[in-house]
Amino acid sequence: MSDAPLVDCHAHVWDASLPLVDDAWIRPDYTYTAEDWLADMDGHGVSYGVIAGASLFGRNHGYTLAALARHARLRGTVIYDPTLDAGALARMRDAGVVGMRLQWFMTPGEDLAGAEFRRTASTLRDCGMHFHLNIDGARLPEMASAVAATGTKLVIDHFGWHEPALRLSEPSYQAVLQLLENDNVWLKMSSGFRRPDPDLPAEYAQDLLRRFGAGKLLWGSDSPFVGHEAANTYGGTIAQFRRWVPDAIERQAIGENAYRFYFGDPA
Question: Strand ranges (DSSP E) for 58-96?
C-alpha cells in the first residue's frame, strides 16, 4: 500500500499567457504550470490531481481545458459561469471538467433563488458535475444549505472557514456537520497552512472521521500556496495531511473516495 495520497484534489495552475483579472487579490510574479504540479506530484508519489478554478483568472477556462487535454491524470473545476449552457457543459465534462467553483470567500456570491443559478445547478446535476464552494464561515450555513438544497453535488472547500475560538463548537462547523448528513455533500481538507492555529485542522479531521468515516472527505494540497509560498512545500502539505489523519488505512480510503468522486469507479 502506497503511503502517498492517491489524489491531490486542489491545486492552481497557470502559465504566463493567462491574464489575471483586474481585481485579483494577489498578483503572483511566477508561473506554476500543470507540468510543474505534475512534477511535484510525481516527486511525492501522488497519482492523480484536480485543478481548482481560481478567482485570479476569472472565467478564462482555456488553460485548464488545455491542461486536461494534455494530461489524462487530471480533472478540473472552473469558476462559476452561468453563460455555459447544457451543451457547453457536457462538452467540458467530456473534456475532464467535473464542476464549478463558487469562489465567494469575502465576496457577495450569487442570487441562489434566481433563475440563472437554478438553471446552472440543474444542468450541473444532469451532467453529474458538482459545485465547489469556498465561503467565509459567517455565511457558510445559509449559503451552503441553499446550494445543497438544489440537489447538485456540493464540495465544501478548505474545511469551511470557521472562526477558531469555539473550536468544534463553532456554529459554522456544526452547520457543516449537519450538511454532511446529506447524500450530496462532501468536504475537502485543505489549506491548513492558512490557519493561525495549526492544530485545529487535525481536530476537524479526527472529528469528521469519527462521525462520517472517509467517505465524505477529500484532500488537497492547495499548491502552489498562493500568498504563503515561502512557508510551504509540496512535501510539507503531505506531511500535514499525515498529521491530520495518522492512520494509513484511513488516508488510503480518503484517496479512493476522491478517485471515485472525480474520476469514477475503477475499471
Answer: 74-79
Would you state the pLDDT for residue 267?
46
Cα separation, 14 vs 122, whole angstroms: 30
Backbone angles phi, psi at 238, to 5 degrees: -70, -40
d(CA 73, CA 124): 22
Matching residue, cell 493567462: 18
Query: Whole-model pTM above 0.85?
Result: yes
d(CA 67, CA 95): 10
What's the maximum distance between 2 C-alpha atoms anywhere in the chain? 48
97 - beta bridge partners? Answer: 76
Domain boundaries, the chain: 7-263
Whether residue 266 has a cis bond before it, omega within 30° of 0: no
Alpha-carbon Rg of the chain, whole angstroms? 17
148 to each of 42, 112, 184, 227, how far by Cα in Å? 35, 11, 7, 30
Give the cell for residue 117.
Answer: 443559478
What does the alpha-carbon distance between residue 94 and residue 89 come to, in Å, rounded to a whole number?
Answer: 9
| 3-class DSSP state of 130 | strand
Q: 49 — phi, psi (to 5°)?
A: -145, 160
Which residues is 130 bridged to in the sheet? 99, 153
Answer whether 106's CB lies under 8 Å from 74's CB.
no
Measuring CA to CA, how many Å separate 103 from each of 78, 151, 249?
10, 19, 32
- Cα torsion 259, 141, 192, 101: sign: positive
Per-residue pLDDT reduced to its tens digit, 149-184: 999 999 999 999 999 999 999 999 999 999 999 999
* The CATH number of domain 7-263, selected from 3.30.460.80, 3.30.70.120, 3.20.20.140, 3.40.50.720: 3.20.20.140
Look at residue 2 in the predicted model and tell me its pLDDT.
Answer: 67
